[in-house]
Specification:
The chain has a single domain (about 5-10, about 60-245), classed as TIM Barrel. It is built from 9 helices and 10 strands. The chain has helices spanning about 30-40, 60-65, 85-100, 110-120, 140-145, 190-205, 215-220, 235-245, 260-265; strands spanning about 1-5, 10-15, 15, 55, 70-75, 105-110, 125-130, 150-155, 175-180, 205-210. The strands form 2 sheets. Strands 1-2-5-6-7-8-9-10 form an 8-stranded mixed β-sheet. The chain has a two-stranded antiparallel sheet with strand order 3-4. The chain is globular and about 50 Å long. The two termini are about 30 Å apart. Bound molecules: iron/sulfur cluster. Iron/sulfur cluster binds near residues 29 and 31.
């Protein structure tokens, strides 16, 4: 299990690594910088650096983690990247369905492919599906998300790069907002954050303020109007599991993956 320092999750699970940039929010991609570092350190899963790579040996990992937890899926990639075969996406969902004592958080910028594949996937209640929205040009991703059958739907508005005044929150269960950090962070205005917070308040949607960001994100902190904002959807699966106990792992039947597919993406990328 990989413990996570991300404020809104507990662990990460990366059955895929690597990605391509598709919108302004990707400019200073944290995963790209981390993958380059891990490649330089000789980590075997990052031998291809930030090139898209399937990691089939990681698929069953959550089934070995008996303690119920909130798991961010593919913190180092995007599950709905065009080059991830649908059979592989289905295998990731099959594991999440079997590991029902955990809660899984998936985040994508490929909201069109998410909607396209959503009818072919199982949607157990322990899957939280989210889309990233960095400014008002990308709110169309929310419409794609809304049209999926996911029980918990959330928005990651990070890095927030501009005002988003008319945010439609119908059918949305959670909103995360954060500023960019790193060496050359783009600025985020307090008024943009307050405006989103107010829209969440009006729509009664839980609001989580992750950070101001900046060059020194620790110093900038995460207080908004003198307090933290840590609302989250209820952790249904974790609560159920505490009542009934984590179930023993059962045999997992994953969709058959063509060896040619996984081999191709293990050794080569684009
Ligand atoms: S979609 Fe996510 S993982 Fe992929 S390049 Fe953009 S920020 Fe990075």
């Amino acid at each position: 299990m990989a413990q996570s320092s991300i404020e809104w999750t507990e662990s990460t699970w990366n059955p895929i690594t690597g990605c391509d940039k598709i919108s302004p929010g990707c400019k200073h991609c944290y995963a790209e910088a981390m993958a380059t570092r891990l490649q330089a350190m000789g980590q075997i899963n990052y031998a291809n650096g930030f090139d898209l790579t399937l990691q089939p040996h990681m698929l069953r990992r959550p089934l070995d983690w008996k303690k119920p937890q909130v798991i961010f899926v593919n913190s180092m990639s995007d599950l709905f990247h065009r080059d991830v075969p649908v059979e592989y996406v289905r295998a990731v969902f099959a594991v999440m369905e079997q590991a029902h004592w955990h809660e899984f958080q998936i985040l994508t910028k490929r909201a069109d492919r998410l909607e396209e594949l959503s009818a072919k996937l199982p949607w157990p209640k322990n899957i939280w599906m989210g889309v990233s929205v960095e400014n008002s040009d990308y709110t169309y991703r929310i419409d794609h998300l809304r049209r999926t059958p996911a029980t918990v739907k959330f928005l990651s508005i990070e890095p927030l790069l501009g005002p988003i005044s008319n945010l439609s929150l119908v059918g949305i269960d959670w909103v995360i907002v954060g500023g960019e950090s790193g060496r050359r962070p783009r600025p985020m205005c307090e008024s943009w954050v307050r405006e989103i917070r107010d829209q969440c308040d009006h729509a009664k949607v839980p609001f989580f303020f992750k950070q101001w960001g900046g060059v020194n994100k620790k110093a900038a902190g995460r207080l908004l109007e003198g307090r933290t904002w840590d609302d989250m959807p209820k952790r249904k699966a974790a609560i159920m599991s505490k009542i009934f106990g984590a179930p023993p792992a059962r045999p997992v039947h994953l969709p058959v993956l063509e060896p040619a597919i996984t081999q191709k993406f293990r050794s080569v990328s684009k």
